[in-house]
């Protein structure tokens, strides 16, 4: 896997291009001279975790013949304030699904993603405690 990063302006705006050939914009916060023209690098790590697990969970539920009408996921990452570097220490993922879904099968799909399939989880887990909860048709499961 290769990623190319090209500087766009005279500050911190970059275009990143990977093997998927889709451009992503990266930028820094305005308080250090960025222009909010892209995601922050640490946000992209959480986005990668979200995408990796979402793909796993959807594939597993499809194989189980579960009917997914809607799927959303949010990730909250917590870092030590004022530390340099400041890796994520705690990450919580909330899965929100709608459809004809068995809660035990959803939990099993998430567990498989977290413990076996998601490479992003494996990458982040040595420095962060990763937890999750899920909702099915607005009913919350821990």
From TrEMBL:
Pfam (any one): OsmC
InterPro entries: KH_dom-like_a/b, OsmC/Ohr_fam, OsmC/Ohrsf
Record's signal peptide: none
Entry-linked Gene3D superfamilies: 3.30.300.20
Coiled coil, from the record: none
Protein name, UniProt field: OsmC family protein
Organism: Spirosoma rhododendri
Lineage, broadest ranks: Bacteria, Pseudomonadati, Bacteroidota, Cytophagia, Cytophagales
């Amino acid at each position: 896997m290769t990623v190319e990063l090209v500087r766009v302006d005279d500050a911190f705006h970059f275009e990143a291009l990977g093997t998927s050939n889709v451009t992503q914009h990266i930028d820094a916060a305005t308080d250090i001279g960025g222009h909010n023209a892209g995601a922050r690098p640490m946000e992209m790590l959480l986005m990668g975790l979200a995408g990796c697990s979402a793909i796993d969970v959807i594939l597993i539920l499809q194989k189980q013949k579960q009917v997914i009408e809607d799927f959303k996921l949010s990730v909250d990452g917590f870092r030590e304030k004022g530390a340099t570097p400041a890796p994520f220490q705690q990450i919580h993922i909330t899965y929100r699904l709608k459809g004809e879904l068995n809660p035990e099968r959803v939990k099993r799909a998430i567990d498989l993603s977290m413990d076996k399939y998601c490479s992003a989880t494996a990458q982040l887990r040595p420095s962060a405690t990763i937890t999750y909860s899920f909702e099915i048709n607005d009913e919350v499961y821990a």
